[in-house]
Amino acid sequence: MSYALAALRPDDHPLLTLDGRATLTRPATTADRTAVNAMHARCSAESRHRRIAATHLLHTPADRTGELAILVEDASQNLGLGRNLVRRALHEAHRLGMASVHVLTERDNHRMLSLCRSLGARVRDAEGCTVYLTPTVAEASS
Fold first, then answer.
1. How many Å apart are CA 10 and CA 55, to the nearest integer?
2. What CA–CA distances, in Å, run from 21 to 1, 3, 24, 39, 86?
3. SS3 for the chain, per residue?
4. Is 122 left (phi over 0), alpha (psi -120 to 50) or beta?
5. What is the pTM of this model?
6. What are the tens digits of pLDDT across the range 90-109?
7. What is the pLDDT of residues 36-72, one digit of tens each?
């Protein structure tokens, strides 16, 4: 691993890619703005449009629901990061007391549709070219 486990902060979460490379995910801060903007600039227009490695988990405490979107930089796609990021976000949603998380994506975003369905998501609604999925929060937290 490229980082010392002893140096991890409580919110740091190690993730492995499918080829065994170590990565680290943690909550973003305002200090990350420049790095996040640079990552977006390195991504293709299609990746930015599809937003499927940055994870966005927006939650509404009043109704205990969240909205999930992810972006994996082009050079890091097909390594399992998207799946790991979604699992991590669903675990965090569970920790925050969310009852459900919703994903809004396009019908032709086969990667996100497949990823969500593999994690137990069900299609909540489909309208035009948009699909609303609801991954299962409780299953991902175990």
1. 18
2. 7, 11, 10, 19, 18
3. CCCCHHHCCCCCEEEECCCCCEEEECCCCHHHHHHHHHHHHHCCHHHHHHCCCEEEEEEECCCCEEEEEEECCHHHCCCCHHHHHHHHHHHHHHHCCCCEEEEEEECCCHHHHHHHHHCCCEEEEEECCEEEEECCHHHHCC
4. beta
5. 0.71
6. 888 888 888 888 888 888 88
7. 889 888 888 888 777 654 566 776 667 788 888 888 8
Map tokens 């369905």 to a residue.
Answer: 117
Cα–Cα distance, 20 to 47 (Å, whole number): 23
Residue 39 amino acid letter: M
Residue type, 45: A
One-letter amino acid for residue 62 of the chain: A
- The residue with tokens 């998380």 is 101
* Contact of 98 with 64, CB cutoff 8 Å: yes
With beta carbons less than 8 A apart as the criterion, state whether 51 and 120 touch. no
* One-letter amino acid of 17: T
